[in-house]
Design a protein that fits this description.
Helices cover 0% and strands 46% of the residues. The strands form 3 sheets. A 6-stranded antiparallel beta sheet has the order 1-2-3-10-5-8, with no helix packed on it. Strands 7-6-9 form a 3-stranded antiparallel beta sheet, with no helix packed on it.
Length: 123
């Protein structure tokens, strides 16, 4: 049985600049086809614009408020919002609040640095 608690998972910085704690992935569990991680962005912080060649993502906002950009569309997001990010779509999330923005990232196939392509913002 593979159970990971967020308090025992080390953080690392992804290629897009977010602080991630990978809860379940092929690197630390029996999971092979997806990853589940918690991401944290400081107040007014944000990810760099990027896309993934093969990976689709779901962001689920736990705490804080932000501005989500996918392609040319932007939308305010907050606790309880689930965001679908298809493979190949440029995306970026920015913390617009005074508190940390915490969200879950579900990736299928699982997150890999090599699948991340950095982009130029289109705002």
């Amino acid at each position: 049985m593979h159970i990971r608690n967020i308090n025992g998972v080390p953080a690392f910085i992804t290629k897009d600049g977010s602080e991630i704690r990978e809860l379940l992935a092929h690197r630390n569990s029996c999971i092979r086809n997806q990853t589940l991680a918690e991401a944290r962005l400081p107040p007014l912080g944000g990810t760099a614009p990027h896309r993934h060649r093969n990976t689709e993502e779901i962001y689920y906002i736990l705490e804080g408020h932000g501005l989500m950009q996918i392609g040319d569309e932007t939308c305010s997001v907050g606790p309880g919002d689930a965001i679908a990010i298809p493979p190949g779509a440029m995306h970026q999330i920015t913390n617009t609040g005074n508190d940390p923005l915490k969200f879950l990232c579900c990736c299928a196939p699982g997150y890999e640095h090599e699948d991340t392509i950095m982009e130029t913002a289109k705002r």
